[in-house]
Design brief:
Number of domains: 1
Number of helices: 10
Shape: globular
Number of strands: 0
Structural class: mainly alpha
Helix content: over 70%
Order of helices and strands: HHHHHHHHHH
Radius of gyration: 19 Å
Largest sheet: none
Strand content: under 5%
Oligomer: single chain
Length: 243
């Protein structure tokens, strides 16, 4: 059974030290090609830990924690890192998950309401646009917040402030990541039943990796701001940095 244990506990693959540095889509594709099997296993872990529904936020954050190690090309011990992150961030992830679910839910309800009545009253196109932009922005903030949460322990107000700043200064990569996630699930729907195994093998982990890859640069940028440094030095800032 040694091979089964090693499959979940051994160190993930790395890259040669002398390999030329890549960026953008080339780096995304290279990381995906190198870590695809780890992502399949990560996807299985996500599904198993998200089965109880209430554990979905913690499962998302744990998946983000491992995805950041992929993005940063750091040593990753999949099962250990995932379980540690799931337990460590459970309550924080649950609280933020409820808050963002409520916020996005209100936004979607507003969009649906204004869209249904805007056909007869063009004046409602203005609040419809505002609701649409606000809802998308909340989703972008959520992406940055999840990644920032697993990169450094910060007080909730500082975490939200930095996520908002990151969303303002670099929204396009996060939007591209969300679009990529949408395309993944659209492909699953369009090509069903051929694509029946996509959610079980890759959709969740690959989607989270795309988000982490897209927002990582903005997260690193805002973590160098004075407010982040000051907050990290406070007693309640917690454990070691993960940058």
């Amino acid at each position: 059974m040694q091979w089964l244990r090693d499959m979940w506990t051994k160190e993930g693959p790395g890259i040669p030290k002398n390999a030329p540095k890549k960026s953008g889509l080339a780096l995304f594709a290279d990381t995906l090609a190198r870590e695809w099997w780890e992502m399949v296993k990560l996807n299985i872990l996500f599904i198993l830990t998200a089965l109880f529904v209430v554990t979905i936020p913690a499962a998302i954050v744990a998946t983000a924690r491992v995805s950041v190690t992929f993005v940063e090309d750091r040593n990753s011990y999949l099962l250990r890192d995932y379980v540690e992150a799931f337990i460590r961030y459970f309550w924080r992830a649950t609280a933020w998950g409820l808050a963002f679910t409520l916020a996005v839910g209100v936004g979607v309800f507003s969009i649906a309401t204004y869209a249904a009545t805007a056909r007869d009253n063009l004046v409602l196109a203005v609040p419809l646009t505002i609701a649409l932009v606000a809802t998308v922005f909340i989703a972008v903030v959520a992406c940055h917040l999840v990644v920032l949460m697993v990169m450094r322990d910060l007080p909730p107000p500082t975490l939200l402030r930095l996520a908002t700043i990151a969303s303002v200064i670099r929204p396009l990569p996060a939007l591209a990541a969300l679009a990529f996630v949408a395309v993944l699930w659209l492909a699953h729907i369009v090509f069903y039943p051929v694509s029946v195994f996509m959610p079980a093998t890759l959709n969740f982990s690959l989607g989270m990796f795309a988000v982490a890859f897209g927002v990582h640069r903005a997260a690193v940028m805002v973590l160098t701001l004075p407010m982040a440094t000051q907050a990290h030095r406070e007693p309640h800032a917690g454990d070691a940095t993960h940058i």
